[in-house]
Automatic annotation (TrEMBL):
SUPFAM superfamilies in the cross-refs: RNI-like
Family the entry assigns: Belongs to the PRAME family.
InterPro entries: LRR_dom_sf (IPR032675), LRRC14/PRAME (IPR050694), PRAME (IPR026271)
Name of the molecule in the record: PRAME family member 12-like
Keyword annotations of the record: Leucine-rich repeat, Repeat
Amino acid sequence: AVGFSGNSGRDWQNNRKGLFSGSFYSTCVCSPSSLKLLAIKSLLKDEALSIAALKTLPMELFPPVFKVAFDGKQTNILRAMVAAWHFRCLPMGALMKTHDLEILKAVLDGLDMLINQKDRPRSCKLEVLDFRDAQHNFWKVWAGTEDGVCSPNVVSESQPVVRHPIRQGKQVVTVMINLSLKSRDLCKSLKYFHLWVKQRKDVLQVICEKLEFGVFPVYKPLNLLEVFEPSCIQELAVKACWDLRTLSMFAPGLGQMRNLQKLLVNEIFTPLDWFRNRERKEWCSREIISQFSHLTKLQHLYLNGIFFLNERLDQVLRYLESPLETLAITRCKLSESDMRYLSQCPSVSQLTYLDLSGVTFLYLSNPLLGRLLENVTATLQTLKLKGCMLMNFQIDDLLPALSQCSQLVEVNFVHNLLSVSSLKKLLQHTANLRKLTLEMYPAPTEVYNDTGDVMPDRFVQHCSELLETLRGVREPKEIYFVSKRCSYCRGFCVSDPE
């Protein structure tokens, strides 16, 4: 808009003709979304009026009004809006970036109001309360911060489809949540949520698809599963170092996760007071291993530092209904029978990712690792054999199968005891591996002196030779030769990447 100032009627007449005179000034042009936001803020200043207006508030205004009330922590309005929500799903996780107990209480109170209604209004369609960090587009579109018009049908298509079982004659409301627990005790919000759900299990189902323990808990982790549908958990990660006692107490819950697709367990140790109690250690180990008979849907399995796998690997893998995509068994001791089973196991025939780093092959039959690779030549993309104590006499059995793994993108042979001649043979057998983008190899044993320290001149000389050998068969993209810790630089001697 453009305005002007002038005193005479003649000025006004001139301006009507397009002959503007006087001094000009600019005024702000408000977009429709800005005007809508101002109107919403004005409405929410009167709490009672806002709650009363919900009965006639158009569907398209519910999300922007809810978002403004959320930003202003107007808990009474949030409570009423949850009970009157016009959409099938309320994606709270996209808004709640931090744990806010008061807002959580308001949302759950609103859900209580909805559940307790005898005659639910037709306009109220809420079936799923989603605390996962997702559904960002819902708020962007409906709050007017994203260009374009979005119909209710378009939004509903992007929201999760959840089947709702009937319990005791009541329609169950579903709460979706993913948990990443990074403190030793449960936070106040999660404690409140846990207790709230326990008291309403007949009218609620809580679905947690991803559960992660980032630290060793002081609470009993099995108790946490009381409020979830264990069969709905698809990913479980125990990233912290747990003791054998805690994991065995959690094991019955693991066995209930019948649709688990991804499992990561990282480092299990024996409590100090258990070291001399073999019977207790054995019982706990059996209790944990036995749960794998229920985990038939696994696709990705990471077992790192699990000491009781020895002589039991077949009990872990034999119940799988379809081949694994990922298998990582690292820093574990595997027996001859374990490796023999693994080399012919149908569940590993389509692996794309194989990591056996830290598994010592020094005392195992030479051909077993080669036979394992033979079974995955058509699919394997990542191979990690870091620190496996591979020796020169073992590498020949590995090379024929390795040369056929045409889909390989990444290999890691670091911290194995290989000479220059063995490494040259290894590199020459990668001629057909045209998809390799990252390669990591050990510095040859010739770079070390009698005390085990790296001699930098030899390191440069031999690694340059190896690089030229590789360039004779194909052009590498990114390649490293890594030594043991060096007394000169106190770090790792690594060749420049190509």
